[in-house]
Structure prediction request, 230 residues.
Amino acid sequence: MVPMNILLIDDHFCAREGVTLLLRQMLPETTVYEAEDVGDGLAIARDTPLNLVLLDVQLPGKNGCAGLVELKREFPSLCVVMFSGLDDRELVFECLRLGAMGFIPKTVSRQVFVEALRDVLSGRPYLPVSAFDGGTVIAALGHTKDYPAGIRPVHNPGMPGLTPREFEVLGWLVQGKCNKDIARRLGIGEQTVKNHLRPIFQKFGVTRRTELLVKVYELGMVFGSPEVGN
Prediction:
């Protein structure tokens, strides 16, 4: 394991102690730095090469979102992951928009926390399941209608190359539909859905649904019923 430096910014002493202990158990070669506010965190970041920052959203004074903006302004390539007792979907995607690599709720189990950190340390974004359950990337983009008809690309500025059927499958996927539900809506077999997902993943350069959903969000893709005449 390559030695790493991780900064934890949280105003609660007990929370910092618990997470620091877990990080040292997970990554024995890692040095964990602690700060109770954004100002102290920035001071550490300026003096120490960091591999990861775990940033609480709810901080006194300057909150975590404002701190995220400052950290990314000074250190654009720094991996910052929000770590919060809140996991509201809009908050999650707002943090992504501001440059966060991921969002880990404080309510997750030890196993999920460990897996989430492994994801972000490997360069893969992590989002909580709540960011997609009962809602969609479309909702995060300001389009909350659950379209009953076939999904069609309305706006796809950054992702050419998908077939019409792949767009339909992707459209239902970003609405949080499982393979079985997508198959039922499209009148095709579940294996056929999987066959369509394979090239979609390849074209987006991802390997997991969460990565694909993040990519769709970042590209600003919007799905829905096409306008008349399109």
Remarks:
- DSSP finds ten helices and seven strands in the chain.
- The chain has a mean pLDDT of 78.
- The radius of gyration is 19 Å.
